[in-house]
Design goal:
Layout lengths: L1 E2 L5 H12 L8 E6 L4 H13 L4 E6 L5 H9 L6 E3 L6 E2 L3 H11 L3 E11 L6 E5 L5 H8 L11 E3 H6 L10 H11 L3 E13 L11 H16 L5 H16 L2 H12 L1 E2 L1
Parallel strand pairs: 1-2, 2-3, 6-9
Antiparallel strand pairs: 4-8, 5-9, 6-7, 6-8, 7-10
Length: about 270
């Protein structure tokens, strides 16, 4: 888990508690401080670290570097063969690790395993909608040519295979998508479980972060990189850009409607 200064301490507490409440507890929790934090965030991390010194590893550096570099830094401190990703404002279902780690143990050919997410605004008990993702490897490869086929906050991956692919890179907003494409290009197998194993918070301007010319520029660079690696051809590149870039410059209410009615399923 990466934490930076703008995180909400109450959300971070809920997130960490959901990890500790797992039916299959983690053997280590690596928390990366991506730059200096607020006193309130430090207090939450210190409290949990003091209560669980055997499994908590708190690492970091003084200046914010972004998610990609933070996750790579954290990977240097991982000792387990499997890693579960977690965001500091989401909540894991209590059976998440039991189901995902169990699946990975039974399917040694799978490098990355994700799931659907259940989105909420302020209360995880009041789910608004779900975001499903393709289940089998072939479907994931096909989806990856046009959009991210994995919910990043749900994934469990094999440590060594992520390192073999080069790990995360500094690709703002696309750190995970960039990694998945490189792993898929190397023939690594992916899978998604057709259940929601993470409650994802959407009351934090999630759509707003995916709006504007700056985001569009990052998106363009990401798909150009996909073309350079041979993962997609020129026609697919043009299709992806025509489908995606107009969304970034349309009025935000329309973009919010697209995410809600096209990419999500209301409950």
């Amino acid at each position: 888990m990466s934490v930076y200064a703008k995180e909400n301490p109450a959300f971070l507490k809920s997130s960490l508690q959901s990890v500790l409440d797992q039916t299959r507890p983690p053997n280590e929790i690596v928390v990366v401080k991506d730059g200096s934090l607020t006193e309130e965030l430090d207090a939450v991390i210190d409290r949990y670290s003091d209560q669980h010194p055997r499994i908590f590893k708190v690492v970091g550096y003084p200046s914010n570097k972004g998610l990609g570099e933070a996750l790579n830094f954290g990977m240097k401190h991982v000792t387990s063969a499997l890693v579960a990703r977690m965001d500091g404002d989401d909540v894991s279902v209590r059976m998440r690790f039991e189901e995902q780690i169990g699946y990975m143990e039974e399917h040694p050919d799978i490098a990355v395993l994700g799931s659907a997410i259940a989105e909420f605004h302020t209360d995880p008990n009041q789910i608004m909608r779900t975001r499903s993702v393709p289940e089998n490897h072939e479907q994931i490869v096909a989806r990856a040519k046009l959009m991210n086929p994995m919910n990043h906050m749900t994934v469990v991956f094999r440590t060594q295979q992520v390192k073999n692919a080069g790990g995360y890179r500094h690709m703002p907003y696309f750190e995970d998508y960039d990694l998945w494409v490189r792993m898929l290009n190397q023939g690594m197998k992916f899978h998604n479980l057709p259940v929601s194993l993470v409650y994802a918070r959407v009351g934090n301007d999630m759509v707003g972060k995916r709006h504007g010319f700056k985001y569009a520029g990052y998106e363009f660079s990401h798909f150009k990189n996909m073309q350079k690696t041979g993962f997609i051809g020129t026609m697919t590149l043009c299709k992806a850009l025509l489908l995606r870039l107009p969304l970034r410059v349309m009025p935000k209410p329309l973009l919010m409607g697209f995410y809600r009615f096209v990419l999500r399923k209301d409950l």
